[in-house]
Structure formats: structure tokens, C-alpha cells
Amino acid sequence: MNTLTLAHYYTTLDVQAMADYVGDSLELALIAQREKADRIVFAGVKFMAETTKIINPGTQVILPDETSTCSLVTQTDMDALKQWREQYSDHVHVSYINSSAEHKTISDWIVTSRNVDDIIAELYAQGEKVIFSPDRNMGAYLNYQYGYDMPVWNAVCEVHDKFKDEQITYMMDNARAEGNVYLLAHPESPLPVLKQADFVGSTKQMLDWVKDFNGEAHTVFIATEEGLLHNMRQLRADINLQLAPIYSGCQCNACPYMKRNTVELVKKAQQGIGFEINYLDEDTISKAVKPIKRMLAFSKKQMEKNVT
Ligand code: SF4
């Protein structure tokens, strides 16, 4: 059996080493669409494995740990979301990929943190009215950054929402006494943090920023899941890369759901033992695939444009 293993950047490095491809949500969705495999093991979280199954209904898709979910999914009550969507029936519903399969069935577009700016800009350019779900922080940032007035659903990423601007300001002020300081932040972070960031971007865009950095920096603070820091340090050991401080809890900023992908569970999943995504009915798949394919086609076109 031809098995393909995909791992998200937020999994541990030993799990990433077992994967055929490591990437962010958009990269992994494009790979899942492009590659032909009998079985796909998704070392990530449930909504990612579901997205993979929706794109490849004929492929066996296995999530190593059934409980690897995401707070953006668990904080979204589907009955309430459906009512909210009906309230704005003349709006285009844009949903972040961090959403359940059922959520995707009532969405017009799926976006990732890498293409959300461009897709929403395009919709506004076409004169559409837009609602955005489920990430409150990302929606607030888009409204602030581009002057939109999108109604936004109210759920957060429990990992990125921990960043608080007071602590970050304090750390940055201290480090500034020593030299240039930068802050890179993922748009799932709270708006006050994003307002003071030098760069706001997706996982891949932040990695590229670090890879291509050619200035002088005493410290570059990163406001995202701590796993990405390992990938960044592998790329640029010469830069002092530090996780931005958080305000409470365990004082670590690891996604508990991503870290449930242990080496042992991924090994088992590669042998076909794990949580198989086999519960999505045809109706769900046929409705959910449309907004996902719309997004994948948009991103492919953009990538081709950037190459030519
Ligand atoms: S880091 Fe946040 S958005 Fe990503 S899977 Fe974990 S809880 Fe969800």
C-alpha cells in the first residue's frame, strides 16, 4: 500500500522527520490534492485530516490520535453558527480552514492564514458583503488592517490567544536597549499584539521572513506556536529568535492537540491503525468540497502568477 505521511509545522521535530512532507495548512492541502496515495497519515489535527478526506474521498485518511482537535472547532456551536449565517444570508461566508467539515458545508469560501487577505480583498473588489468565521482575532485584524466591516464569529485559537501586548511591549522595550528588535505574529493572535508587530503572516510567511532576513537584529520575537521556532532556528541559527512571552497558564505555548501526534502513534497510523476519517457522508463531502476547491484553485493561480 502506498502511504503518504503529512505533518504540520506544529508537530514535534521527531514526528516531522517521519513525514514525506512538512508544511502549513495550505501547503499540506495542496499536496494532499496533488499526490496520489492509497493511505494518507495526517500528523496534525482533525479538521486537517477531514479536509484531506474531503479532497480525496477515495483515499484512506488516518489521524494518529482521535482527540487531536482545535479550539476554533470546539468553541463553535454549529446550531448557533447556522443561525448566524442565516442572519447574513446576503453575505458571502468566508471560513478559516480551521473549522469542522460541517462548518465547511455552510461556507462559500475556505481560506488559510496565507491566502485570507487576498481572497477577501477580491470579494470586496467584486462588491460582495462578507462575514468571517470562526477566528475572532483574525477577523478583527482584517477589519482593522483593511477597514472592512465584516461581522465576525467569536472563537479563538487557545494557543495564540495567550499572547498579551503588555508583556510583549515590556520584553521588546528591554531588548531594544541592546539593538534592533522585531516582532513577527500569526494573525490568530489578539489585535493589540498584531498592531505592534513588524510582520503579520502565516506560518510559512513567517518562516520565509526569517529565512530571507538580511538586516541587523538583537532579537526577533515570534508570536506563534512554539514548534515553528525549531524550524526557524534550523534555517537561521545566526538570529536570536525568541518566543514572544505569554501571560498565563503553563508558560509554554505548545498546541496540546498537535503534540498528541507521538512517534509511536504516527508509526501505528502508517500501518493503518489509528482514527480513520470514514464518517463523512456523501452530502457533507459534496457540499464541503466546493469552498475548499475554490480556495485551492485561487491559490494555485496566484502561485503561478508569482512564478511567471
Ligand atoms: S495552534 Fe490553535 S488553531 Fe492551531 S490547531 Fe492548535 S488550537 Fe487550533
Give a short overview.
With 308 residues, the protein is of the alpha/beta class. The protein has 14 helices and 12 strands.
State the main characteristics.
308 residues; alpha/beta; Rossmann fold; 5-stranded mixed β-sheet; 4-stranded parallel β-sheet; 14 helices; 15% strand; globular
- How many structural domains are formed by the residues? 3
Sheet with the most strands?
5 strands, mixed
Q: Going across the major beta sheet, what is the strand order? A: 2-1-3-4-12
The kinds of small molecule bound in this structure are: iron/sulfur cluster
CATH fold type of the largest domain: Rossmann fold
Please mark out the parts with pLDDT under 50 across 5 or more consecutive residues, or reply none.
Answer: none
How many DSSP E strands?
A: 12
Distance between the termini: 37 Å
The CATH architecture assignment of the largest domain turns out to be 3-Layer(aba) Sandwich
Mean pLDDT: 94
Order of helices and strands: EHEHEHEHHEHEHEHHEHEHEHEHEH
Instruction: Count the DSSP helices.
Output: 14
Residue share in helix: 40-55%
The CATH homologous superfamily of the largest domain is named NadA-like
Overall structural class, as computed from helix and strand content, comes to alpha/beta
In CATH, what is the class of the largest domain?
Alpha Beta
Q: How much of the polypeptide forms β-strand, as a percent range?
A: 15-25%
Tell me the Rg in angstroms.
19 Å
Gross geometry: globular
